[in-house]
Design a protein that fits this description.
The complex is a heterodimer of chains A (about 325) and B (about 325). The longest helix of chain A has 18 residues. Chain A has a single domain, classed as 3-Layer(aba) Sandwich (Rossmann fold). Chain A is of the alpha/beta class and about 325 residues long. Chain B has about 325 residues and is α/β, with parallel strands linked by helices. Chain B has a domain of about 190 residues: P-loop containing nucleotide triphosphate hydrolases (Rossmann fold, 3-Layer(aba) Sandwich). In chain B, strands 6-7-8-3-9-10 form a six-stranded mixed beta sheet, sandwiched between helices. Chain B has a four-stranded antiparallel beta sheet with strand order 2-1-4-5. In chain B, α3 packs across α4, α4 crosses α6 and α6 runs parallel beside α7. Chain B is globular. The chains are: A alpha/beta (about 325), B alpha/beta (about 325).
C-alpha cells in the first residue's frame, strides 16, 4: 500500500457465509442424516483502500470467489457486513443509496465464453450497465472498445467472432461502462494463454491509472497476484490466515500455510529443484479440523493449535492468524 | 543412448472444405529413457495434437500425413489400429488433464488397474490385484489395501490423478505421455504430483512427454523443453538454457509475458497480436507478423526446423550477447 492514509472504499467486517448442503428433508429422515452445513467463508475482515489493488489468493474451496460474490451483492452474507463507503448492501433500505453503491461496483468473471450473451451484439452488451439504469449509451461502446484495445467497428459483431483474450477485453469494457469505482476481478486471466494474459494484465494496470479504479483481484496464481496487487490476503478454508503488502508477504511470509503455498508454487529458476512437497490436502469444509484449520498439515503445529483457533493479530505491517508466527 | 521416442518430421493434417489445415507441421524431437521432455505452447500450438498422434488417438479426419514416429527403434505410426491398441497401456502410458473423466466411474480403481495389468502382462487375477495395490502404494495413496475397492468418486482430485498415474505406469511402459497432468489441480497438490512423476520416471527409467502450457511446471519438472508455435517447433533445448537464454524471439516473448519470470517489472512484455489461425497461416515463419526481430526472408522461407547445433527455428535468433537474464 503506497498510501495507507486513503480512506477505505470497501470495508469487510466478520464476513461469514454458510451454505446448507444437506440432503433433502425426506432423505435426512429416512437415512438419519444430520443437517450438513458448509462454512465457505468464516469471519473474514479486511479493507480495500481507494485506488488500491487488493488480492485474495487461495486454493480451491478457500472461499475467495464467495467473498467476491458477497462484495458485489450476488450472494447475501450469513453474518457480518460489507460496507461500500458507508452503505451496507445487505441491510440498506434506502433505494437511492443502494443504487448509488451498486453503480460503483462491477465484476469481471473467469470465463469470457460464459459471461457474454451470445445472442447480443457487443454494442448492447457493453452498453447494458448504462441502459439498464435508463442512461444514454450512444457512442459509449465504440469509445470503450477503443480504450480496451479493440476497434470501434467491432461493436456490431457478436461474441463468437472474438478470441478468448478479446472477449475478456469486452468484459472489461462492459465493466467500465457504468463508470465504477470498484471492479471485482474473479480469476480474470485464468482461462487465457500466457501471452494474452500479459496483454490483459497490462491493460488492467493502464485502466486502473486512467480511471482511478480500485480492484479486488481474486486468483489462485501467485505470480499474477504478486505482479498486480498492493496488498494480498491469503485464504485457507474460508478464513483469512495472513494479510500483508505484496512485497512484504513474498519477502517474509509468516503463516506456515503461506510458506507452504510459496514453496509449492512452481518457480522459473528452480531447475531440477528437489522439494519436499506439501503434505496432505485441503480438509473437508463440512467437517473442518478443530482449532486452527491448517494444523493437520502444519509442520510446526503444537497442542494449542489443535484446540484453540488463532485470532488475527498484527505483526509489523502484516496481520497473521497463527499462534506461533512471529 | 538410443531414444525411446523419436519423431521425424511428424505432420498432422485435417482436410476441410476450405483447404487442408496443418495443426502439426514437421515436428522432430527425441526423448531418451529416464528423460522428461516438456512440450510447451499456447492453445492451438499443436502440443497435444502431437502427443495424440504418437499414441494413435487422433480424431478423424485429422491424420498423420508425413513423417515417422519411432518407439524403441520400431516404427509405430504405420501400425494398424489393433497394433496401436496393444501399444497403448503396455508400452505407452497416458495421463490426461482431468482425472475424473479418465477413470471409469462404474469400476473400482483396483479393478481398473488390474484390468490393464491383465490385458498386458501374463499374470493371474490374484496377482494382478496384488500388483494394483502395490501400484497404488507406490503413487502414495494412503491405506491402499483398504481403498483398492473404492470407486473414483471417493477420491479427491489429487488422489484421482495419482490413481491415473498408477494406471499409466502399472504395465511398466517405456514412455508416458502426460497431457496437462496438473492443470486441474491446486498448487500444493500440483507440487506433489510433479515430485511423484519425477521420482517414478527416474526410478524406472521411463521417458516422459510432459505437455503443458505452464512454464513454471516445465522449469520444475523437465530436463529438456520443446517450445511449439502454430504447429511448428520454435525452439528445443535443455530447460535452463531455453528459459534463461531463449534464442527464438517467441520464447523470449513468452518468458517476458510470464509474470513470475519478469520479476519487479512494472509492465509485462507483450507479444502483440495473437497466434494465427490454422486456416490463415502467414507464409514463411509463422511468427513473423508478431516478431520484433523479423528481417528479410522471414515472410518467404520458413526457417529451417533445426539446423545442426542450433536450438531455434529462426532466421535471426537471439545471440549470446543479447542474453538479458543473469
Amino acid at each position: 500500500m503506497k498510501d495507507t492514509e486513503s480512506p477505505a472504499l470497501v470495508r469487510v467486517r466478520n464476513l461469514t457465509r454458510v451454505f446448507d448442503v444437506s440432503k433433502p428433508w425426506l432423505n435426512r429422515v429416512l437415512e438419519r442424516l444430520p443437517r450438513a452445513l458448509l462454512t465457505a467463508v468464516s469471519d473474514v475482515s479486511f479493507d480495500i483502500p481507494e485506488k488500491g489493488v487488493y488480492a485474495l489468493v487461495g486454493e480451491s474451496g478457500s472461499g475467495k470467489s464467495t467473498i467476491g460474490k458477497m462484495i458485489v451483492g450476488l450472494l447475501p452474507p450469513s453474518d457480518g457486513s460489507v460496507l461500500i463507503r458507508d452503505t451496507d448492501l445487505a441491510t440498506e433500505r434506502d433505494p437511492a443509496r443502494i443504487a448509488a453503491a451498486r453503480s460503483e461496483i462491477q465484476m469481471i468473471f473467469q470465463d469470457p465464453y460464459a459471461s457474454l450473451n451470445p445472442r447480443w451484439r457487443v454494442r448492447d452488451i457493453i452498453a447494458e450497465p448504462v441502459t439498464a439504469r435508463g442512461g444514454d449509451a450512444s457512442g459509449l461502446a465504440e469509445r470503450l472498445l477503443e480504450q480496451v484495445g479493440l476497434a470501434a467497428r467491432d461493436a456490431g459483431k457478436y461474441p463468437h467472432e472474438f478470441s478468448g483474450g478479446q472477449r475478456q477485453r469486452i468484459c472489461i469494457a462492459r465493466a467500465l461502462a457504468a463508470n465504477p469505482k470498484l471492479i471485482v476481478c474473479d480469476e480474470p486471466t485464468s482461462a487465457l494463454d500466457v501471452s494474452v494474459q500479459a496483454q490483459v494484465l497490462n491493460l488492467m494496470s493502464d485502466l486502473k491509472d486512467e480511471f482511478g479504479l480500485t480492484y479486488l483481484f481474486i486468483s489462485h496464481d501467485l505470480t499474477v497476484v504478486r505482479h498486480m496487487a498492493d496488498t494480498i490476503g491469503v485464504l485457507y478454508l474460508g478464513r483469512l490466515v495472513e494479510e500483508a503488502p505484496a512485497e512484504a508477504l513474498f519477502d517474509n511470509p509468516r503463516h506456515p500455510y503461506t510458506r507452504m503455498l510459496f514453496a509449492a508454487a512452481p518457480r522459473m529458476d528452480a531447475f531440477g529443484r528437489e522439494v519436499e512437497p506439501p503434505k496432505g490436502e485441503i480438509p473437508d469444509p463440512i467437517n473442518p479440523p478443530p482449532g486452527c484449520a491448517f494444523h493437520p498439515r502444519c509442520p510446526i503445529a503444537v497442542d494449542r493449535c489443535r484446540a484453540e483457533r488463532p485470532e488475527m493479530r498484527r505483526l509489523g505491517n502484516a496481520r497473521v492468524a497463527c499462534h506461533l508466527a512471529e | 543412448m538410443a531414444p525411446v521416442l523419436s519423431l521425424r518430421n511428424l505432420t498432422v493434417e485435417i482436410p476441410t472444405r476450405h483447404g487442408v489445415l496443418r495443426p502439426v507441421d514437421s515436428v522432430s524431437y527425441d526423448i531418451v529413457a529416464g528423460e522428461i521432455l516438456g512440450v510447451v505452447g499456447e492453445s492451438g500450438a499443436g502440443k497435444s495434437m502431437a502427443g495424440n498422434a504418437v499414441i494413435g488417438l487422433l480424431n478423424r479426419p485429422a491424420r498423420i500425413t508425413g513423417g515417422e514416429v519411432w518407439l524403441n527403434g520400431a516404427r509405430i505410426d504405420n501400425l494398424p489400429p489393433e497394433g496401436l491398441r496393444k501399444l497403448r497401456g503396455k508400452r505407452i502410458g497416458m495421463v490426461f488433464q482431468d482425472p475424473l473423466t479418465s477413470l471409469n466411474p462404474l469400476l473400482t480403481v483396483g479393478d481398473q488397474i488390474a484390468e490393464t495389468i491383465l490385458e498386458h502382462l501374463p499374470v493371474s487375477r490374484a496377482e494382478a490385484r496384488e500388483r494394483a495395490i502395490a501400484a497404488l502404494e507406490e503413487v502414495g495413496i494412503p491405506a491402499a489395501r483398504d481403498r483398492v475397492d473404492s470407486y473414483p468418486h471417493a477420491f479427491s482430485g489429487g488422489m484421482r490423478q495419482r490413481v491415473v498415474i498408477a494406471l499409466a505406469l502399472c504395465a511398466e511402459p517405456d514412455l508416458v505421455i502426460a497431457d496437462e497432468p496438473t492443470t486441474a489441480l491446486d498448487v500444493s497438490v500440483q507440487a506433489q504430483i510433479i515430485v511423484l512423476l519425477k521420482r517414478l520416471c527416474r526410478e524406472r527409467g521411463t521417458a516422459v512427454m510432459l505437455v503443458t502450457h505452464d512454464m513454471g511446471v516445465i522449469a520444475e519438472a523437465a530436463d529438456r523443453v520443446a517450445v511449439m508455435y502454430a504447429g511448428r517447433l520454435a525452439e528445443i533445448g535443455p530447460v535452463a538454457d531455453v528459459i534463461q537464454h531463449p534464442r527464438h524471439p517467441y520464447t523470449a516473448g513468452l518468458m517476458g509475458s510470464t509474470p513470475g519470470a519478469s520479476q519487479g517489472q512494472a509492465r509485462l512484455t507483450q507479444i502483440p497480436g495473437a497466434m494465427p489461425r490454422l486456416d490463415a497461416m502467414p507464409p514463411g515463419c509463422a511468427f513473423h507478423p508478431r516478431c520484433p526481430r523479423r528481417g528479410p526472408g522471414c515472410d518467404i522461407d520458413p526457417p529451417p526446423v533445426r539446423a545442426p547445433d542450433a536450438r531455434a527455428a529462426c532466421h535471426y535468433p537471439l545471440t549470446v550477447a543479447e542474453d538479458v537474464t543473469a
